[in-house]
Amino acid sequence: MLMTNLMTARLMMSTTLMFHIVFAVLGIGMPLLMIIAEGLWLKKREPVYLAIAKQWSKAFAVLFAIGAVSGTVISFEMGLLWPKFMAFAGPVIGLPFSLEGFAFFVEAIFVGVYLYGWDRVPPRLHWLSGCLVAGAAAASGVLVVSANGWMNTPAGFDVINGKAANINVWAAMLNTAAFTETLHMTLAAFLAAGFGVAAVHALMILRDSNTLFHKRAFAIAFSVGAIFAVLEPMSGDVSARYVAKNQPIKLAAMEGQWETEKRAPLRIGGYPDMNEEKTKFAIEIPHGLSLLAFHNPNAEIIGLKSVPRDERPFSPLVHASFDIMVGIGFALMGLGLLGFFLAWRMKRLPDQKWFLLLTLLFGPLGFVAVETGWIVTEVGRQPWIIYNLMKTADAVTPMPGLIIPFIGFMLIYALLTFTLVVVLKKLIQQSPKGTP
Asked: Fewer Cβ within 10 Å of end Cβ, the chain: N or C?
């Protein structure tokens, strides 16, 4: 029964998180796009920028509502599926969740001001309300991810008789993984939202090249995505080196590294065979992993064989997800740099058909990178729900019949997805046509 519950609980939680994270990313990235568009209108007084800000605000309203519903489901699931984890960790990481709730309320208040304040509040005050929405949305993401960082590097408490004692909530929230995780995730949110929105407008330009609305919207969204695409690999390097130092087994799973050795190679592709304990068919770059992880080609890398089999993450999934995330990251960075180069050559953002098609193809990949990145973070920590302290199998609920709420949640998400597609499609179709 425990294994059945564990599998069902993990599947339910992972499905919920993979659904919700899309809205979390757009909820962080869209407000930035909105205030940039409105800021350009305040500066230039060109009506097209005001039209863009209003249209994006309508899309954000839909995404915000669905994100709030899916986020509420997660809060229920935490108590339903992982009661032992919540009993132990609740007093320790309650602060970031409480502050996240406060940030959400601030965001909700000023979302109302922003959506209903057009022509009702002074323009600069309206733009300021948008800035508060953007700040609160980013703060919510940072606070939640800092709690996840605690699960990877628990801090701020002592364990006495199996319970958390001598709790320091600030030390827990500011755990050593918090900075690298929140930095990487926040940049990823802006990157994915920027390129995702740019892909939509690229499609509309391909359908109607005589549209100033979509060209200006594309320019804003692509520029935001490109800037953060250049920054993201830098934060990725910081994150990888942090993992190498603090979670060496996760790094070993990411790279399919079985032996503990110096001058470890970097593996691209391949399949880590959990039975034969070797990574097959990989392209190996000598000394590459040691160099990237510690900036020292002779550094020692801990291998998966250094821990018992039941304490090893499922390396095939972690390694594949890591390769996909990194590959997409460099592809989008290349797209961003290409866009900047062409803009420099042409003195404007390029709108050639081939470039728009490339953006349409690559744009949605930012969300794939976010999903695979979270697979690396979460599956790479297994079998621990709290790293080296509490195993996931020990935290799951003994309640039978989890398949029933699982089916119920999936039906809710199917309905939300259908509603989202219908509403966003209608909004896109209502976008201004032609050149104002």
From this structure: N
